[in-house]
Specification:
The structure is a homodimer of 224-residue chains. By secondary structure, chain A is of the alpha/beta class. Chain A is 40% helix and 18% strand. The first copy, chain A, is built from 8 helices and 7 strands. The first copy, chain A, has a 7-stranded parallel beta sheet with strand order 3-2-4-1-5-6-7, sandwiched between helices. Chains A and B meet through helix 1, helix 7, strand 7 and helix 8 of A and helix 1, helix 7, strand 7 and helix 8 of B.
Chain lengths: 224, 224
């Protein structure tokens, strides 16, 4: 217990450093969390394709093993760096900070951090991101928010993914949304399909507005 | 101590309700906090003048006594409701919720909540706002963030006000910013003068970007 507290305190200190660094670099960092198989990488690939013509994008990929996800991202042309966490079931702020140093995203970039597929461990570890984004696909259960309240509570946005499959499923989107709001009244909820493109404009709108907000103040930097 | 905890827990529950209500109403709520005399009302008047041609705006005014601030706001044409807290040194979420019900701002409004002038009490009371905005004027001290860490820690934006007075003062803006970032690494910092208009565009840019972000998801509401 004591060790866990020390670990989290240390992580929080690194996360605060990252936040300051991201802030100063005009970088909007989004931490994407979900169960394995919710479609994070596919969504990222489709998102990057639509953003990169007018916005610089960079990606940090977290996986326990393999660098397949980073390769999928790099195929879009966006810089991506893979972190293998080995036995670790989540990214932490320290490794994220080092990855950022190596990536050195351009000023004004959107930095996607794809966390290890896991709805428990990543909840405790602030990476210094501006917005934590949790994905739940319509092939999962409507009760997920109640089962993983820490993840929902710590997230700003819930993306309900794979909505193209809804006609073939007995899934109640409204029940999922209600459960999510029971845990986190302020959470924003968007429905997307990376396959058909439905809902992508709202998700891109979120990213663009969040980036504008992240850049606020940098044009009129306090430092001269 | 027990009583205080109960009070805060109750407030947090009301704040969660407010947040959900604001969210559903497409309302961006900003909670403005500061010492007395930092220029909150003057800034609000100048802000509303510049916003209200294309954005609906509403204001909740908190003061221990008098309704002079609400009258100054109403002179701009924006709807304003005054809450007198009597002996209370801060607004709470319950009174804010009732004020919101009475005001009923239009969909997509920016709701400014001008808190009671006090850098201590309002820090503990979440009103359900999206962004807490703390004002420190250049006629105050650079060490304010270190003296009032709770307020800085809980704020998203620091507005350094009355910068038109800088040439006449021995005030180190950079030292203030550094102190604020020591407490809250992610805090955004803007410098403004409501008098000359300097920095107003960046502040308006923050509000517009934050409102766009608040509206995200509402166009593609989960409910059909």
């Amino acid at each position: 217990m004591k060790i866990e507290q020390d670990l989290l305190a240390k992580n929080d200190a690194y996360a605060a450093d990252n936040r300051l660094t991201f802030n100063m670099a005009g970088v909007l960092a989004l931490n994407l969390v979900s169960s394995p198989g919710s479609g994070k990488t596919t969504l990222l690939v489709e998102t990057i394709k639509r953003l990169q013509s007018d916005l610089p994008v960079a990606v940090i990929e977290g996986d326990q093993q393999t660098s397949m996800d980073a390769e999928r991202i790099r195929a879009t042309g966006a810089p991506a760096l893979q972190i293998n966490t080995g036995k670790g079931c989540h990214l932490d702020a320290h490794m994220t900070g080092h990855a950022f140093e190596q990536l050195r995203p351009a000023f004004g970039s959107v930095l996607f951090i794809e966390n290890v597929g896991n709805l428990v461990c990543p909840a405790m570890f602030d990476l210094g991101e501006e917005h934590r984004t949790v994905l739940i696909s319509v092939t999962e259960g409507e009760d997920k928010p109640l089962k993983y309240p820490d993840m929902i509570r710590s997230s700003h946005l819930l993306l309900i993914t794979k909505i193209d499959l809804l006609p073939h499923l007995d899934f109640d989107v409204e029940a999922l949304a209600t459960n999510a709001r029971k845990i986190n009244s302020g959470i924003k909820i968007l429905k997307v399909s990376a396959k058909t493109g439905e809902g992508m404009n709202a998700w891109l709108g979120f990213i663009r507005a969040a980036r504008s907000l992240a850049l606020t103040g940098l044009e009129s930097r306090v430092t001269v």
